[in-house]
Design a protein that fits this description.
65% helix, mainly alpha, 0% strand, 3 helices, globular
């Protein structure tokens, strides 16, 4: 869990990462998801 790294642009990623919502993932950029990976 990377809740601490949830800030600014990472906020969207963090939300999708924790909620695991496909809708959020589509709205957010894949680059963000890749960075958190």
């Amino acid at each position: 869990m990377r809740k601490l790294q949830c800030a600014g642009q990472y906020y969207c990623c963090c939300l999708h990462y924790t909620a695991l919502l496909s809708l959020l993932l589509l709205l957010c950029s894949d680059t963000c998801a890749a960075r958190l990976h």
